[in-house]
């Protein structure tokens, strides 16, 4: 079927993400969404196995979120947040503080996940400076990690296996270590912090599972170890919950599985239920108090233009409404069971080295990087939108995905892997 005119005429002017423009296949033209499905220009429907990079946790076009957006756009789509206030943002901040454990009470809004991580890094640096501690200008992050594509966040992604090796040496090198999964790696991390702790402002980790670095899980005890070592060496602990937050791993926030509070947590992705860009860096009381001063120079001098956009905050408040009744947890358990059962036969596939699930995340890992574009096309032929990355084919569907659509997704993976 021929491409729509808007696609052919606009294609020479659109720079697409994560692909070599010269050789990439044309993108699939989407004209509408509904529930767990993408409706294409030619009338085909694809079950979305990724929930648009795991944002649309409640499914597309949820009527409660749509109603909130319609009401908010009539009243006030946007005002600047410098010197002005509005109810959607203040109510959202209060609600997030109430949902997060402990004294994670101070919410700084932005638009994207990468920017939220940059803000968390900036907070950590200035926290040390405001307390009169000099020299703590670096960060510790972990192999297999991914925290964003902006310049500073690239420096705390995996420097070898990640997407950003081309930029090695452009920005200051950070301290990269192995996650402390056992006594030996814990001792190694302790030694690194003992030797270089005076340089390190904070360490950053994706709790329970490292997402874009390969969907690599780790047990909750790893987070408890990081909390102990952070306290021992006087560095802040930052949890990047942009992927894991809002139910994806089975608890509302991944940190809850370990009973651990970071000093700063970053949130985005599913925050608005997959409708509008919004993110937050949320700090504990002692971090915020380092900025509370009569000295103007101690303030956090940061303010994204669309910070706390009222329309996005209205969507986020509506999304939080949907989390309140607890149905999401039952849905995540249902999705998890379907992914585990449906993907398990893939262990017998050629080149498959592991099959794993965590909450509403299902992963088939191969022994070598997969051909992303070719596999995307093969999945689409089977009625599924699945975009692999690196060595993994993964599913992160909407929590509300019907059983029949979950079965279609896992069947498509089994067929492409060659076990059905």
TrEMBL record:
Cell compartment(s), UniProt: Cytoplasm
Binding site for pyridoxal 5'-phosphate: 113-114, 240, 304-305
One Pfam family recorded for the sequence: Aminotran_3
N6-(pyridoxal phosphate)lysine modified-residue sites: 269
Superkingdom field: Bacteria
Residues engaged in binding substrate: 53, 146, 269, 303, 387
Stored InterPro entries: Aminotrans_3 (IPR005814), Aminotrans_3_PPA_site (IPR049704), BioA (IPR005815), PyrdxlP-dep_Trfase (IPR015424), PyrdxlP-dep_Trfase_major (IPR015421), PyrdxlP-dep_Trfase_small (IPR015422)
Cofactor needs: pyridoxal 5'-phosphate
GO BP of this protein: biotin biosynthetic process
SUPFAM superfamilies cross-referenced by the UniProt entry: PLP-dependent transferases
Entry keyword set: Aminotransferase, Biotin biosynthesis, Cytoplasm, Pyridoxal phosphate, S-adenosyl-L-methionine, Transferase
Reactions catalysed, as given in the entry: (8S)-8-amino-7-oxononanoate + S-adenosyl-L-methionine = S-adenosyl-4-methylsulfanyl-2-oxobutanoate + (7R,8S)-7,8-diammoniononanoate
Annotated EC: 2.6.1.62
CDD domains registered for this protein in UniProt: OAT_like (cd00610)
GO MF, any single term: adenosylmethionine-8-amino-7-oxononanoate transaminase activity
Site features described as Participates in the substrate recognition with KAPA and in a stacking interaction with the adenine ring of SAM, chain residue numbers: 18
NCBIfam families xref list: bioA, PRK05964.1
Family listed: Belongs to the class-III pyridoxal-phosphate-dependent aminotransferase family. BioA subfamily.
Primary role: Catalyzes the transfer of the alpha-amino group from S-adenosyl-L-methionine (SAM) to 7-keto-8-aminopelargonic acid (KAPA) to form 7,8-diaminopelargonic acid (DAPA). It is the only aminotransferase known to utilize SAM as an amino donor.
Subunit structure: Homodimer.
HAMAP family: BioA
Entry protein name: Adenosylmethionine-8-amino-7-oxononanoate aminotransferase
């Amino acid at each position: 079927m021929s491409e729509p005119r808007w696609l052919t005429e606009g294609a020479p002017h659109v720079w697409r993400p994560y692909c070599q423009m010269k050789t990439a296949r044309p993108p699939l033209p989407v004209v509408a969404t509904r529930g767990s499905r993408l409706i294409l220009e030619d009338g085909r429907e694809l079950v979305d196995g990724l929930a648009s990079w795991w944002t649309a946790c409640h499914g597309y076009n949820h009527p409660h979120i749509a109603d909130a957006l319609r009401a908010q756009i009539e009243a006030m789509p946007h005002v600047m947040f410098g010197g002005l206030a509005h109810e959607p943002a203040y109510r959202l901040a209060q609600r997030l503080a109430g949902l997060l454990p402990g004294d994670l009470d101070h919410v700084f809004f932005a638009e994207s996940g990468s920017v939220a991580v940059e803000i968390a890094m900036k907070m950590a640096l200035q926290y040390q400076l405001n307390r009169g501690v000099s020299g703590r200008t670096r960060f510790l992050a972990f192999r297999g990690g991914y925290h964003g594509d902006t310049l500073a966040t690239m420096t705390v992604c995996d420097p070898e296996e990640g997407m950003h090796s081309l930029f090695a040496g452009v920005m200051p090198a950070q301290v990269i270590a192995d996650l402390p999964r056992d006594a030996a790696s814990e001792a190694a991390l302790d030694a690194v912090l003992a030797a270089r702790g005076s340089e390190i402002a904070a360490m950053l980790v994706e709790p329970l599972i490292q997402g874009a670095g390969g969907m690599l899980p780790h047990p909750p005890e790893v987070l408890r170890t990081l909390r102990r070592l952070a306290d021992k060496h006087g560095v802040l602990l930052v949890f990047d919950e942009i992927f894991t937050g809002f139910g994806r791993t089975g608890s509302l926030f991944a940190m809850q599985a370990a009973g651990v509070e970071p000093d700063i947590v970053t949130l985005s992705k599913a925050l608005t239920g997959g409708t509008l860009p919004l993110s937050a860096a949320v700090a504990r009381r002692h971090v915020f108090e380092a900025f509370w001063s009569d000295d103007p120079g101690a303030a956090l001098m940061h303010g994204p233009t669309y910070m706390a956009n009222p329309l996005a905050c209205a969507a986020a408040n509506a999304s939080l409404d949907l989390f309140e009744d607890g149905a999401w947890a039952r849905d995540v358990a249902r999705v998890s069971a379907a992914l585990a059962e449906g993907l398990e036969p893939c262990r017998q596939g050629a080149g498959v080295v592991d099959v794993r699930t965590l909450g509403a995340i299902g992963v088939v890992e191969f022994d070598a990087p997969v051909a992303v574009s070719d596999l995307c096309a093969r999945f689409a032929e089977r009625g599924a939108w699945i975009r692999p990355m690196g060595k993994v084919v993964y599913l992160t569907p909407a929590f509300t995905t019907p059983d029949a659509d979950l079965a279609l997704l896992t069947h498509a993976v089994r067929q492409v892997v060659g076990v059905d």
